[in-house]
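Please go through this protein, sequence plus structure tokens, and consider how the sequence yields the tokens. Keep your notes short.
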Amino acid sequence: MTEKQSRVLVVDDHPLFRERLVQLVENEPDLSVCGEAETAQQAIELIRTTLPQLAIVDITLRESSGLELVKSIKALSLGVPVLVLSMHDERLYAERSLRAGAAGFITKDQDAAQVIAAIRRVLGGAIYLSEQMTASVLKNLATPASKNTPRTVDRLTDRELQVLDL
């Protein structure tokens, strides 16, 4: 194949979902999966050995938080962008994911074409959020601080939100 493929690492603790996501990525001629992980520790090891051009990470992982994994990936300073793909509410986790170092957030209820579009956008060096979330973030930035009071849940730390989720 003459076309260069972008290497993608898939991190999700649900084998069936991970398998389907791998199939989705592998069906694209310009993408290939260089590894799969179900834990943060496995993901870090694979990132160090395979040097993917993108990591797709779920928020909820066995034994750890996907947000903590995003922070760890950023701390590696290898320039691996992260797309968070999660079942969790975008309003609660998209901004947190971006603050942790992710380059995008998409929910698992999106169709395959939208997931591929998000992957390509992040691989292209851009930030990906849904249209609704992008509008919400821009509205918050445009609203004066005095009128922009955060919701109670927005004041929780990542760890506090993780405990609340449990």
In short: The mean pLDDT is 88. The helical segments are 15-26, 40-50, 66-75, 90-100, 112-123, 131-142, 158-165.
